[in-house]
Amino acid sequence: MKPLKIVLCSPRGFCAGVVRAIDSVERALALYGAPVYVRHEIVHNRFVVDSLRAKGAIFVEELEEVPETDAPVIFSAHGVPRAIPEEANRRNLLAIDATCPLVTKVHREVEIHRRRGREVLLIGHEGHPEVVGTLGQLPEGAATLVETVEDVDRLEPRDVNNLAFVTQTTLSVDDTASIVARLKDRFPAIIGPHKEDICYATTNRQEAVKRVAPLVDAMIVVGAPNSSNSQRLREVAEREGCRFAVLVQRGSDIDLARYEDVERLGITAGASAPESLVEEVMAVFATHRALTVETVVAADEANMFFPLPRTLRDHEAAE
């Protein structure tokens, strides 16, 4: 078969928030031993979750599934409603918050807007854990979810001069810009974030895909179906003219017959997908075709780092 040119997007894969969340579970296992309970998937990647489960992590969806225990209970990178740590405190559970600091930033923003009496609009996807967590920082009804430009057109705020908006951190940069533009058009006095809420990792990965998509015949995004940032990467590739963009979880998902006519293949990975899965995907193609590999770099994230949650840092300092 003809050789295959692979064009790797950079950056791709793990972001600093995901590394922090995974490290939190592994550090807790090292400090306290198994089991360590984790509310919701620590990050949206089955491979990562299964790996941590094999080491002694127990994943639950709600705190009521956690028995009376001295074992740590870790909150996922996506963030949780305010009621969750309050419940953990009532039950005297050892709670460790692995919420990404950039999600925590959004939580603080909505709380500040509430204190100042503003009606809050959250741009995001209904039902996503991050959205559930952000809405859960406020009393019910204090914030309104906006998913589309059409949602903006249907808004009837209590006071058009007392509005603010925040966004989910893993959205499409371009789609969100359209929604924000419509908000500002309809409500000129609306207050937005001092620095946009879409996180650096989402922005950088989408920018890399934008650069690669026009150069390739197909694009593979390594990531989970329930990963918002991974789904957005696939959509960005399609929007930028890539005729075939697909989301796969690992190498076994590859149907080689669909790539027979592909001469240039772009590959990226969502922020919760480990690099080992990218290598696994490339290995599948290498069994049938000679590969050449090029990397297109959109940003350098080498210095991005978030420290572990305070509970784990304090434990380290005491050792």
Distance from N terminus to C terminus (CA atoms, Å) equals 57 Å
- CATH level-1 class of the largest domain: Alpha Beta
Low-confidence stretches: none
Q: Describe the oligomeric state of these chains in a short phrase.
A: single chain
Radius of gyration: 21 Å
Biggest sheet details = 5 strands, parallel
Q: What would the average pLDDT be, to the nearest integer? A: 95
Rough outline: flat
Going by CATH, the homologous superfamily of the largest domain would be: 4-hydroxy-3-methylbut-2-enyl diphosphate reductase, catalytic domain
Q: Number of domains in the coordinates? A: 3
Binned, the helix content reads 25-40%
As a percent range, the share of strand residues is 15-25%
CATH topology of the largest domain: Cobalt-precorrin-4 Transmethylase, domain 1
Order of helices and strands: EHEHEEHEHEHEHEHHEHEEHEH
Number of strands: 12
Structural class: alpha/beta
| Strand adjacency order, main sheet | 10-9-11-1-12
Report on the structure:
With 319 residues, the protein is α/β, with parallel strands linked by helices. The protein folds into three domains: 4-14 and 200-297, Cobalt-precorrin-4 Transmethylase, domain 1 (3-Layer(aba) Sandwich), CATH 3.40.1010; 16-100 and 306-318, Rossmann fold (3-Layer(aba) Sandwich); 102-186, 4-hydroxy-3-methylbut-2-enyl diphosphate reductase, catalytic domain (Cobalt-precorrin-4 Transmethylase, domain 1). Helices cover 39% and strands 18% of the residues. It has eleven helices and twelve strands. The protein has helices at 16-32, 46-55, 83-90, 101-115, 129-135, 149-154, 173-186, 200-212, 228-239, 275-286, 310-318; strands spanning 4-10, 36-39, 57-60, 72-75, 94-97, 119-123, 143-146, 163-167, 218-222, 245-248, 264-269, 291-297. The strands form three sheets. A five-stranded parallel β-sheet has the order 10-9-11-1-12, sandwiched between helices. It has a four-stranded parallel β-sheet with strand order 3-2-4-5, with helices on both faces. β4, α3 (83-90) and β5 (94-97) form a beta-alpha-beta unit. α8 (200-212) runs parallel beside α9. The chain is flat. The N and C termini lie far apart (57 Å).
